[in-house]
Specification:
Elements (H helix, E strand, L loop, with lengths): L1 E6 L3 H13 L3 E6 L7 H5 L6 H4 L2 H8 L4 E4 L10 H7 L2 E4 L5 E2 L12 E3 H8 L15 E5 L3 H11 L2 H4 L6 H8 L5 E5 L11 H8 L4 E5 L14 H15 L21 E6 L2 E9 L2 E13 L2 E12 L2 E4 L3 E2 L8 E2 L4 E2 L5 E3 L2 E3 L2 H4 L5 H20 L10 H10 L7 H13 L13 H7 L4
Parallel strand pairs: 1-2, 1-4, 2-3, 4-19, 6-14, 7-8, 7-14, 8-10, 9-10
Antiparallel strand pairs: 5-15, 11-12, 12-13, 16-17, 18-19
Helix pairs in contact: 1-13, 7-10, 10-11
Bound molecules: flavin-adenine dinucleotide (FAD).
Protein name: Ferredoxin--NADP+ reductase
Pfam families: Pyr_redox_2 (PF07992)
InterPro entries: FAD/NAD-bd_sf, FAD/NAD-binding_dom, Ferredox_Rdtase, Ferredox_Rdtase_adrenod
Amino acid sequence: MVQIAIIGSGPSGCYVADILAKKIPDSQIDLFDKLPTPFGLVRAGVAPDHLHTKNITRQFERLLSRENIRFVGNINLGTDLSYTELKQHYHIIVIASGAPLDNKLNIKGENLNGVYGAGEISRWYNGHPDSAHLNPHFSNAVAIIGNGNVALDIARILSKQHQQLINSDMHQQALAHLDSACIKDIYLIGRRSAADASFTSAELQELLSLPNIAAAIDSDQIPQLLPDHIEEGQRRNAEKNLALLRALNTSTQPSTKALIPTLVDGKTRLHFINCASAVSISGENNQATTLHLVKNHLEGATATPTDEYICVNVDTVISAIGFQSLSIPDIPFDSAKGIFLHQHGKIESGVYATGWCKRGSHGVIPANRVDAVNLAKTIIADWEHTVLPPHKTGFSGISTLLDNHNIKPVSYNDWLIIDQAEIKRATQSKPREKFTSATEMLALVNKS
Ligand SMILES: Cc1cc2nc3c(=O)[nH]c(=O)nc-3n(C[C@H](O)[C@H](O)[C@H](O)COP(=O)(O)OP(=O)(O)OC[C@H]3O[C@@H](n4cnc5c(N)ncnc54)[C@H](O)[C@@H]3O)c2cc1C
């Protein structure tokens, strides 16, 4: 029996488990997660109003109920279990631990109250136990730095009104917190031109179609022609983005000033500011009040700061500029890139990485399947060359270790109990009312 451990039950872990289970029939696959719940960012990153995207968990559910696959929740590799212990008990290890750390802006004022990372904010409104109790400071104005889909997700969630979120997957406390926030202005800040934005036109259209959004962008921030440096695969999306932005109110104001869309009662004003980078955040009484931006000069894909500055009055700053993985003791890690050190997915003999912890925080859920398919080929080729693999105990050995440390893993059946309890306590047409603390979930399945 080939004993396989996968660390992380997000999309990458699930995809690789699915493929290996089919390709190595005589295998037992143990899918570990530090949380008592499976599915990684599908549960705790994907926006709560995107229920169709979250529905991929149904496919993963079927995987977890298979006979040779075991979900082992509530086990953090690196604290509850060491890498050395894991290697002693498994033939093959795949690290699929994602990239949960927000990239830093590395500017003065980043530690002021009211400054958050997009990961923190999306975990907060998704009820992830690490951030569910964040209670972010929201008042009139929020600046979101970054031009990817995560930035748009956050802008959309912060602009939506109670009725538009009531049947989403957002937990009650977050919804109540947003209800009381009354955000009037959202600034979306991009380092380069609107043509360089990496968000998809579908996400942009969804945001701009909200009835309670009043959006505008300076016309001189939208290139007349698509710049040559935009790669072939991105050009169609960029064209669509520009067309959507051109259709907004335009202004003759100089681009050095933040544009002010018309304020209509009950609407959130959405300001697109492009070709600008954050240089510092200043505040009063330790609370962020002003975001300082420098205008950039663009030459191809290169943005160079000029000597023109913009000040934006804000209460909250959210950086949505990518994520890094968390290192795990004794596993080779590339701190500069924020990923595990690997060669085509291989960390060392019998140990591999896949998904965001391997290639960085790029790519949507299906991209992780492509990654998993390629990695499975490498793993199988390596395994076929393994002469006389030693006997490994797999989970029975791990289980003894965990018992000795009084650590209680959460099984797939335990997860089903948590899942059913969340579904049962949901009001309206919500899919579930999430438990937001691990202690609560563990008590429910007598594992506290
Ligand atoms: C805010 C946000 C919104 C997104 N929205 C979409 C979307 O709408 N559509 C889309 O297609 N893609 C979306 N994505 C991208 C998508 O979520 C990723 O492509 C995908 O989740 C990456 O999968 P992963 O398995 O590598 O990492 P993750 O999904 O992060 O899974 C990693 C898992 O590893 C576990 N783990 C971490 N460390 C340890 C440890 N030491 N021991 C045990 N377990 C550990 C974590 O608890 C987690 O469950 C979004 C991403 C973000 C950040």
